[in-house]
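can u do me a favor
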């Protein structure tokens, strides 16, 4: 018997693929796997963002999405700008700080996965905050956002010569 795939099912699949399933794209967990603080803090000679900054940025937005999905007010105040969510490039000597961010990122990904798995389809049609978008539109864009940044992280690793993961 064939089952119906709902919009929520698609979002769950996309979230899993973006975080840890090796299917059509490199998932974020693999893109971050094995990085040292020095590698995470590296900024290309031509300028740009570090992996640490990209991870800070995703963590900021993912935390806010999770809390809103849970019906809570965000625990972190709104950033002054999108640029502010990236923070500084990171300290190449701060392994403890990098490892803490990795652990928090992993836990947040698990919480998001669990929260999505328990959502009701009707939630997707609800308005997202004060916008004209609904939750389905917001979550679809959120998953693409993380997939985009995972690709940037892989590119930065390739530029550094620290990408050796084969699928």
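np, heres the sequence
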């Amino acid at each position: 018997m064939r089952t119906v795939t709902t919009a929520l099912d698609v979002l769950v699949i996309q979230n899993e693929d973006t975080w840890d399933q090796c299917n059509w794209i490199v998932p974020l967990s693999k893109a971050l796997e094995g990085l040292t603080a020095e590698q995470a803090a590296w900024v290309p000679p031509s300028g740009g963002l570090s992996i640490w900054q990209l991870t800070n940025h995703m963590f900021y937005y993912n935390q806010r999405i999770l809390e809103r999905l849970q019906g809570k007010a965000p625990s972190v105040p709104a950033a002054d700008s999108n640029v502010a969510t990236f923070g500084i490039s990171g300290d190449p000597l701060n392994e403890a700080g990098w490892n803490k961010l990795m652990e928090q990122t992993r836990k947040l990904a698990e919480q998001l996965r669990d929260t999505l798995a328990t959502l009701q389809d009707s939630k997707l049609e609800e308005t997202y905050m004060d916008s004209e978008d609904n939750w389905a539109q917001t979550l679809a864009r959120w998953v693409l956002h993380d997939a985009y940044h995972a690709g940037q992280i892989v590119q930065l690793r390739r530029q550094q010569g620290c990408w050796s993961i084969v699928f």
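The mean pLDDT is 94. hope that helps!!
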